[in-house]
Amino acid sequence: MNEASALYPALPELILAGGAMVLLMIGAFGGERATSPMLSYAIALLVVAGLAIAAMPDERVALFNGSFVVDGFAKFLKILAVLGSIGTLWMSGDFLADPDRRKFEYSVLILLATAGMFVLISAGDLIALYLGFELMSLSLYVVAAFDRDNVQSTEAGLKYFVLGALSSGMLLYGASLIYGFTGTVKFAGIAQEAANGGIGLIIGLVLLFAGLCFKVSAVPFHMWTPDVYQGAPTPITAFFASAPKVAAIAAFVRVSFSAFPAIAAQWQQIIIFVAIASMALGAFAAIGQRNIKRLMAYSSIGHMGYALIGLAAATGEGVQGVLVYMAIYVAMTLGTFACIVSMRRNDKPFEEITDLSGLARTNPAQAFVLSMLLFSLAGIPPLAGFFAKFYVFLAAVKAGLFTLAVLGVLASVVGAYYYLLIVKIMYFDEPAPAFDPMGNALRSIVAVTGLFVILFFAYPGPLVEAAAVAAKSLF
Amino acid sequence: MTVAALFFYVFASICVASAVMVIASRNPVHSVLFLILAFVNAAGLFVLMGAEFLAMILVIVYVGAVAVLFLFVVMMLDVDFTALRQGFLNYLPVGGLVGVVFFGELVAMLMVGAGALAPGAAKAITDPIPPLADVTNTEALGLVLYTRYAYYFQAAGVVLLVAMIGAIVLTLRHKPHVKRQNIADQVARTKATAIKIRRVKPGQGI
Q1: So what CATH class is B1-78?
Q2: According to DSSP H, which parts of B61-205 are helical?
């Protein structure tokens, strides 16, 4: 094997990083005119990277002395992250059409953020984990403030940056303690030493998990989420809610199972608390929201709580549940945000829930699909969201975590209230003026995710089995 | 040996003294200059320990970039440092307590010894260490940085690229009425476009 082919497992990352630099050159010479073709180039690059991932073998390959791991788990989540990024770029056409925002760096930053997610998902040690996090987060801070003449957007970017830096600090502090008490940064090495790490290692673990919780916006490190989601431009909010969460959950699961299996009982307690708190806050705090992006922020906090139930189970089935949950969550989120992006009148965005009044009469098709997506987010059978919750609850029950499962069901009942409230507003309130007609890109996203959500029950096999294969590669 | 000890005390005492002056001096520009002095003396301490790479990095990065940036900021922004120092005595007890706690931790750490903190550390070191007796530590770092840690190095490079793109995206504004030199235009000028010949009759203006 020569040197170049030894790098084959890192091909998707190389495609994205190299492609981003080529696009940067094209943009630097092409200027503003390059912005919209750039969007298509970026989508094409992501598709190629996604195909390259799909073509990877399933067995575990480690590169760079174990810092970079490709296995079934990484493959599954990377494809999910790529889909999230493609969806985001796909719905960004209108946003970038505005002359003030016609900047080609947008696509480049999304590509580099995706490359960061890949590094994170494949991380085999603490340094790669941190570098992946920084690459992803730094790009996200910038795109959050992308609409730089808008006060809310710059506020979102600044808040995200400051709090993100804090969380990186906690993550690094935790990582340094773990390194200090085990003598290695490699997950495999930490796993060997974890049993006799003592209290110092556990403090490191708690700090590391605090940093990770921040990135997945789980309670008690969620406070940035509503403001950032509301302030950031809507396609970017869709991005925040989809791909980076996939990557952060991936990091969470991989760290837990490949570095700390010996002290599973310790981190299980943390995850159980975080899951319950996130579900409860997601359910109760969303009730009073008037702005739909804020509501989606609380909704995503709640969903992270449900996904973490699978991790709390600390079993292969639990991980499978997490993977299925994330896949369905990404589909539901992208669909719902495509609907929110389309809430425009005379090219001005509207974000209040009351703006959706009577959508069933002004645009019945959109109202129907949006209600299906909302029913699915609430977890009502037979839609996809129900199965997502079903698998994680099942894993929790099998692992003996009955209280957690019961609290999860109760939280989803509370959560159903505000999803149903939106459906009620769309169907039974006096119609507000109609929105501008949806573009083809948005329509295709809404149609695809809507069909996925509605028809998932008929053919759940492939996704569930793929998740099972992916989960097995961790154990 | 005595020369080394002598230099250690010279560097260390100037370092501590200038660190005190950083927070004690009234003029913020003097503070930054004392900060630079502290950095240079810390670099001297590193050289005494045989860590010449760290010493040079300290001078190049901290003195050359960071401190000069501070100096620019202090000179460009009109920060009222006396107002900032108003609450100093009020916060002193809390700050002092934190300092005492940290000092206690440091002492405890030294008492316990580093080995006890990482019981598995010695056997966990599987990476080859460059022959430190034969090469300088700059060379030793170079030997591993571009080989064993090439992945981290490249990833960190991409992170810096993102930071650069971000800074440009968020701050660069193309002003519409800026006159820039366009050499092609200048070269392409001909006599016909550049000058106009008027005949002016004697005794009359234009």
Answers
A1: mainly alpha
A2: 68-76, 81-84, 88-112, 114-117, 121-124, 137-145, 150-171, 183-188, 191-194
